[in-house]
Each structure stands twice: as structure tokens, then as C-alpha cells.
Amino acid sequence: MAAKRQNTRKNDPQRTQEDILEVATEEFSTNGLAGGRVDAIAEKTRTSKRMIYYYFGSKEGLYLSVLERAYRKIRTLEADLQLSNLPPEQALRTLIFTTFEHDETNPDFVRLVSIENIHHAAHMLRSDAIRDLNVSIIETIAAILDRGIADGVFTRRADPMDVHMLISAFCFFRVSNRYTFGTIFRRDLSEPETMQRHKGMIADAVISYLQSGAA
Amino acid sequence: MAAKRQNTRKNDPQRTQEDILEVATEEFSTNGLAGGRVDAIAEKTRTSKRMIYYYFGSKEGLYLSVLERAYRKIRTLEADLQLSNLPPEQALRTLIFTTFEHDETNPDFVRLVSIENIHHAAHMLRSDAIRDLNVSIIETIAAILDRGIADGVFTRRADPMDVHMLISAFCFFRVSNRYTFGTIFRRDLSEPETMQRHKGMIADAVISYLQSGAA
DNA sequence: TAAAATGTACTAACTAGTGAGTATGTCAAG
DNA sequence: CTTGACATACTCACTAGTTAGTACATTTTA
Questions:
Q1: Taking CB atoms and an 8 Å cutoff, what residues of chain B touch A121?
Q2: Fold topology of B69-211
Q3: What are the C-alpha distances in Å from B89 to residues A20, B83, B96?
Q4: Does residue A186 belong to the interface with chain B, where contact is any CB pair within 8 Å?
Q5: Quick one: angle between helices B160-176 and A192-211, nearest 10?
Q6: What are the pLDDT digits (tens) for A164-198?
Q7: Which of B75, B131, B153, B181 to mutate to test the interface with A (most CBs of A within 10 A)?
Q8: Which fold would CATH assign to domain B13-57?
Q9: Contact with chain B for residue A154, Cβ under 8 A
Q10: A12-57 maps to which CATH number?
Q11: Residues with Cβ < 8 Å from B111, sequence gap 6 or more?
């Protein structure tokens, strides 16, 4: 009566799906949609290929779920920021540092977005969940810029979306183009020293931009 | 003596290779390395699949040649710039505009670089031609920054490579992430008006950065 | 006439997707 | 409280179609 029923199956749909998504995220972000192998995903999973089709219907369906899951993660991150009680310049710096660190610590997300762009964002377009992404970040920036103008800390009236793009571009590029950039210029962009310098640079560039010119 | 020998073959190895490379550039930049189909390339070519293997050995070999060809193009572009006789600020603006327009008019190149980054620049590493890319751009920027400091137009001593990255990031991102960005924020980044604004923005941001702080 | 260039037709291997059945949990009826 | 019916969760083995790559014959060029 001691040891028995070792190889008994446990139904755990939630864990199974999470498991698949976790593995698939890695596979797709490493190899792309076309390059990612369903069999490879199945093998790294504690479940089988049949289950992937059971839950996600197709390779594309799985990819889409991976993408949605990745975007859901940042959405919550953005929402958690409490910047309205900080002075404008400090609020903006905090926002920039957060973006910087998010991209730096989530290369998988960055890679998935790159991949999705190669596909002309075709899957994203089909996903209401992603397309209707709470773009609170723009409102957050708009509020900071307005306060900055009112306080006189910022002199230039900039489009919040453009400012967001300036910030995003730098933070994203550092991660997305790490390999080609590093290869050509023989520089390791993940070195802590370089990271710190870049972090300060993008913040200073944005702030000084807002403090120069009028319009 | 009129029309004869219609279906006679003409050997034109150079044109054949160029033809293949042209078509392959489009195929790979649209579908990625794994997603690109050798058969699809062969069909769009005035030659056959056999020729692709005859000249390029393998799919990867073809992809590498496509990549090298793309990089060779910018290398010449960079070299052609004559900025040393312009005042520092104007020289930098010219350089920025050139980068901006290059990325804007060469989305294929941008996409290929994105794809290569997904592959951790593995092919680039194997290509001496690309790895030893003449990085004259850095020297060009360094010279401009030095002159700017000497003239007193720039007050901040910045690393030329960092400045290059700030510029590249924005110009590249606008093109590489056009689709996801456009989808989420419902903005068409290729509109002439938006383009002009962005062009001015990145230039102003870089210049104001160099004119702020000391260090 | 030899070497380079090209066309045709094929194959071996891979890969997304499925057919058909089994195990597990739950809930209602006896 | 237990049996059995049903839905969900899961396994294993298979297939149809695709795709990179090639064998072999032929034509062009020098």
C-alpha cells in the first residue's frame, strides 16, 4: 500500500496552457513565426503537440496568444505608474527610466514586437485585445508636458505621441538592434556602465529638447 | 531573315545574379529568412532555382549575399557626405536628415537589419565584408562634435557612438516599428507632415542635448 | 572541345495539422 | 455514497503537403 499510481495523470488545463505559452514565447521570439517549430515547442513542454492544437487551434493562433500575453504584461506596468505627484521633470525622468528598464529586462517582448512588424502587424490588427491597448502612456505624457509648460520648466509645446516615440525608439533600438550594432561597432550594449550612460543620455536629450525652442 | 532564333538562350551571369539578388532582397525582407521561399524567389526571377544554388550554394548563402549587398549600399552613401566645410550645427543637421531619409526610403534595408537581429546577427558575424564595415560615420560625427566644442556651439562632450545611436534609433524605429506603432496609436508615420515634424524633432533633440549640460 | 551557365525533373526530409481513442473529474440519479 | 453519463483534458501514431536541395542533361561561350 506504500507507493502506487506513480504515473497517474493530473488534469491541470491552466497550467498546461501557461506552460505552452511560456515555451512558445521563447521559441517564437528566438526564431520568428515562420522559424518557430511547433514540434520544438511541444518537446520543451511537459505536454504534447496535440494539446497545442487543442487549446490554440493553429500555429498562428498560438503565436497570437503569445503576443497578447506579452502586451498584457506591459499594459499593467504602464498603469501602475504614479507620476502626477512628482514635479514634471522628475516625472518624465522616472517614466523614461521605467521604459528603459522595461525594454532592457524584456528582450523577449522587444523581439516579438520586431517580429510582428516584419509581418506588418497583421496579427495585432486581428486582435481586439492588442489593438485596443489602453494607450494611457500618451495621456500620462500629455499631463506631464502640460504641467511642465504651466510651471515654466518646459518651454516647447511638443506632441505627446512624438515624445513617446523619441523615448521608445531609443530604449527599443538599444535592445532590438543590439546584435548588429554591437557587431559593427564592437560595443557591448548590455554593459552596466554603457547602460547607465545611455539611460542618462535619453533622459537629458528629451528634457533638453523640451526646454529648447518655443512653438 | 526577319525573326529567328526566338528561344535562344543568352548567358549573362552578372545579370542573372543581380536579378536573383534583387528578387531575394524583397522576398527575405518581406518574409524573413525562415519565411522566405527559395521557390518563390526562383519563380519571380527570369531564371530557375537551379541557378540560385549554382551561384549562392544554399538559401543561407543567398541570404548572406542579400545582406552584404544591402550594407554595401549604405557604406557608399556614408562616404559621399562632405560635411567638413559646413558649420558644426549645420553639418550635424545635414547628417541627421541624410540618415532619416535613408531609412525612410530604404525600408527593405531596415527590415533586413531587423531580421538579422532576430538571428543574433549570426550571419553578419560570419561575413568579413559586413563586420569590417567602414564605420566612417563615427569619425565623421566625432569631427563635427570636436569642431562644435571648439567653436563653443556645443557645450556637452558626448561620445560620438552614443550620438550616432540616438540618431539611428529614432530614424530606424520610425520605419522598423511603423506597423505596430501605427496600429496601437492609429497614426500613419509615413504622412509627409508627420515626417517633416519628426525630422525636425530628432535634429532639435540631438542639438539641444549637445548644447545642454557640460561634462 | 572544354568549361561555364542553364533547364528539367526529381527526392529526402521536414512540418503543420489530424484521426481516433483514453483518462479524469463532476454531477445527478438511484 | 456510489454508479454511470457526460464534458473536458489528454495520448499516440499518423498523413498530406511543403520545401530545400540535387542528379543529370543540355546549351552557350571562349
A1: 179-180, 182-183
A2: Tetracycline Repressor; domain 2 (1.10.357)
A3: 53, 10, 11
A4: no
A5: 70
A6: 999 999 999 999 999 999 999 999 999 999 999 99
A7: B181
A8: Arc Repressor Mutant, subunit A (1.10.10)
A9: no
A10: 1.10.10.60
A11: A118, B29, B30, B176
